[in-house]
Design goal:
Helix content: over 70%
Largest sheet: none
Distance between the termini: 122 Å
Number of helices: 11
Order of helices and strands: HHHHHHHHHHH
Radius of gyration: 34 Å
Length: 237
């Protein structure tokens, strides 16, 4: 059949009768349907591109978290957002604490306490906050924080993974407050634990801490006054 013999959309005389409904539909709605389909494809492509971009960003964030070591590096991951950022908050706080930046560590732990949705991670942040308060000599606040966490541990229907760390942290705070008896009482569950209790493996550590508590001697008022006393002026030659 020559090119001029082919039927077109205007000449329907030679179109098979069974195809006429299809042809009429195409004439009425075909171009609009194509436009809608094209627009849908563009939207789908944009969504796919956006998802891939976010996934790529998250991949980079996870890699950064894996190789981070300093507080500044963890801060970069935190600022990037996403799930990796929540883990990075804890690592950032730990890095700041290890560096002696207790104010920065406290801010990081408190931010983690507010933002972490996972109760397990949130409890780690709460314990870190209590320890940081103790390092800042804010002992009353530290004791209140660790006592609150102690209630969470006690209410857990299964053995809590912080069941040993919390009483040891509390014992240290109580000891620094000058109450050695209460400090050793806080360690009692660990000191008396026996197999097959999961606390039994912490008994040696608790025993060492109990000895440290026995030997602990807080500085006297005279010692503290000497620390803040001005240095003597150099002798004139």
């Amino acid at each position: 059949m020559a090119k001029q013999d082919l039927p077109n959309l205007q000449d329907v005389s030679r179109v098979p009768e069974e195809l006429l409904p299809v042809l009429h539909w195409w004439q009425d709605k075909g171009p609009k349907t194509l436009a809608i389909a094209a627009a849908g494809l563009l939207v789908a492509a944009a969504i796919f591109y956006g998802v891939r971009q976010r996934e790529a960003k998250q991949d980079v964030t996870v890699q950064n978290l894996a190789f981070a070591a300093q507080a500044e590096e963890f801060s970069t991951v935190v600022n990037a957002g996403g799930k990796a950022a929540e883990l990075a908050r804890l690592d950032q706080a730990r890095a700041l604490f290890a560096a002696g930046d207790y104010e920065g560590a406290l801010a990081a732990y408190e931010a983690a306490c507010k933002r972490l949705d996972d109760p397990a991670l949130a409890d780690i942040a709460r314990l870190g906050r209590a320890r940081t308060l103790e390092a800042l000599d804010r002992l009353d606040e530290a004791l209140a924080a660790v006592t609150e966490l102690e209630a969470t541990v006690a209410a857990s229907p299964v053995p809590h993974y912080l069941a040993a760390e919390v009483p040891m942290a509390k014992a240290i705070i109580l000891c620094r407050q000058g109450d050695k008896a209460a400090a050793k009482a806080a360690l009692a569950p660990l000191l008396s634990a026996e197999e097959p209790s999961p606390l039994a493996k912490y008994t040696p550590q608790a025993e060492r801490l109990a000895k440290i508590i026995d030997a602990y001697a807080p500085k006297s008022l005279f010692d503290k006054a000497a620390e803040v006393a001005p240095a003597p002026a150099p002798e004139a030659k």
